[in-house]
Amino acid sequence: MRRLKLRLTTTHHAQLRQHLLPGDGLESVAVALCGRRRGDLAHCLTVYKLEPIPYDECRLRTPDRITWSTRRLLPLLEEAAKRDLAILKIHSHPGGYSQFSTVDDESDADLFSSIFGWTDSSFPHASAVMLPDGVMFGRGILPDGTFCPLDSILVPGDDLCFWSGNSRARLPGFVQRHAQIFGAGTTQRLRELAVAVVGCSGTGSPLIEQLARLGVGRFVLVDPDHVEDKNLNRILNASREDAYLHRPKVEVMARAIARMGFGTEVEILAQDLATPAAVKAVAECDVVFGCMDGVEGRHLLNRLCTCYLIPYFDVGVGLDGDGKGGIDEACGAVHYLKPDGASLLDRKLYTYDQLKAAGLRRTDPVAYRQQVKAGYIRNVPEDRPAVISINMQMASIAINEFLARFHPYRHDDNADSAVVRMSFIQGHCYREADGAASGTFASVLGRGDVRPLLSMPELSEPELQA
The whole model's pTM is what? Predict the structure, then answer.
């Protein structure tokens, strides 16, 4: 069976908590419109429009029951029917009851029978409950009226709130020492995570190595390149034979994970991220790590994660030599990006002019070289220096930033570490809070599958013939 996942932003979660738990001890309710990722392995619901039901439109509110007018649901149903979107109902259990009650069963059966009649969808809708501490649990409702538990609910904020419905399996032996520090609950949730790594070279390969040994249950690995002699200095588990045979980097990573023998699932895509297959595979994952140099790939990955409400860790390294053995610069940065937070463009990691230049170099190399020669574009070196020790340290920083959010443990608030910069010349680490978000990708926030994918014409797919 496909896994069923729900994702919502911290903004929506905060709005729900304020409305559903006003402090009067009575149940409250809200409804939401959700985008979908209609995947083969996972069906993901992404909240993008929230409609709290006013208290005065509820005919009955008690500590364990609520009846309410569906008037505010009607516009959402019309949009859901037009675009085959999902409807989510969320109500509170102010007394802390951590299961669906028989009253909930009857209410959901009646409500979602009508919703399916209106939308005529073959995909699930969902119902969720919020407890007083903000924790959520939920279930999907299938077209035949069957209830099935949500496999996970993800709120990608400064802390990564990940509530799983399947944390009962026995932990394998190789993660027992992780459990000694993170606890069995967090360690099991790592086993249930699907993680995408885009870019499997200098920072990507040590990052994959660590995530696999931490016990991540499933990987999606994306990289169009093959192993070459020039990058054997920094790709873990790669050999000269791999370079001679021009093996794809993703195959080398998958082989290394398989040799560990941990039962880890791996999906590899030896293609560019800017393809429908890669976008769809990454969109089904719970966390994304970007290990790319180019601004185009980072911009696209930032857009993808905003569209599907996925937390994104971007890893970058900057090394510049003077050509005589001296080092002008040696630094790195890890950016953590929330779907509803500041983008890489907001943080000035690149500019629109650089993005435009990168696109021109890809689509029209001759015109690009002419503009470089004329001085309209500053040239970007095709082969940059690379040192494995610096790459591995930045990969480790990225992993530890992820762990600090997945299992919050440090004294300082995670909000203070939206950007972690490391200067190897100065020997210092600098941390920055998130800046203001300009809404770069606001038009796709939480929209899920749209046509064309990510609202980008270059990701258009052929229409299916009847």
Answer: 0.93
